[in-house]
Amino acid sequence: MTQIKSFDHVGVTVADLDAAVDFFVGLGLELEGRTFVEGEFLDTVCGIPDSRTEIAMLRPPGGGTALELATFVRPELIPGSPNAMANELGLRNVCFVVHDLQSTVDRLAGEGYGLVGGVGRHEDTWLMAYVRGPEGIVVSLTEQIGPLSAG
Q1: Which DSSP helix (H) or strand (E) runs through 104?
Q2: pTM > 0.70
Q3: Spatial distance between the Cα atoms of 29 and 102, rounded to a whole number of angstroms
Q4: Residue 149 vs residues 57, 122, 126, 133, 146: alpha-carbon distances, Å
Q5: DSSP state of 115
Q6: CB 72 within 8 A of CB 80
Q7: E-strand spans in the chain?
Q8: Which domains does the chain have, with CATH numbers?
Q9: pLDDT, tens digit (0-9, with 9 covering 90-100), for 42-82
Q10: Which residues pair with 142 in a beta bridge?
Q11: Contact, 86 vs 132, CB < 8 A?
Q12: pLDDT of residue 6
């Protein structure tokens, strides 16, 4: 018997919440809301006494798993590795299915967000690319270009 009922959200900590929200809204996510969280609940969950954070919740159109973006007001943020590659331990990317991968990649490049590698093709079924967004966040963008095999 599984203990998991559903997949609720993925959380990402950022320094510039406005820039991160703008980036993900530009990809097509919808902002559900923003709020500050502090007090016993947050201190208990994150294990950091006297913490305060601002969070923004975003979801894909029509619902689905949310993306929680958070920035800490206190304590100070600790820099991560903004140039982390796929073989570095930790959560490396969040993947979104897009309608036109190349136009999405081109638009993001125009906004200053480049490819980590290149656009890959998998068995005439999928195109995929990693794009490094604000603060080094890697988003995997994929487009289904052919039928999935039955195997």
Answers
A1: helix 101-110
A2: yes
A3: 19
A4: 35, 12, 11, 32, 9
A5: B
A6: no
A7: 9-13, 30-38, 52-59, 66-74, 94-97, 120-122, 126-132, 138-144
A8: 9-74 (3.10.180.10), 94-144 (3.10.180.10)
A9: 999 999 999 999 999 999 999 999 999 999 999 999 988 88
A10: 97, 128
A11: no
A12: 86
State both tokens at 64: 């689905």
Alpha-carbon distance 66 to 77, whole Å? 23
Q: How many helices (H) and strands (E) does the chain have?
A: 3, 8
User: 24-53: buried (b, 16+ CB within 10 Å) or exposed (e) per residue?
Assistant: beebebeeeeeeeeeeeebeeeeeeeebeb
Q: How far, in Å, are 34, 48, 132 from residue 44 at the CA level?
A: 21, 7, 32
Half-sphere exposure of 57 (CA within 13 A, CB side): 11
- 104 sits in the region (left: phi over 0; alpha: psi -120 to 50; else beta) called alpha
CB atoms within 10 A of CB 130: 20
Please state, in angstroms and rounded to a whole number, the distance separating the CA atoms of residues 33 and 40: 22
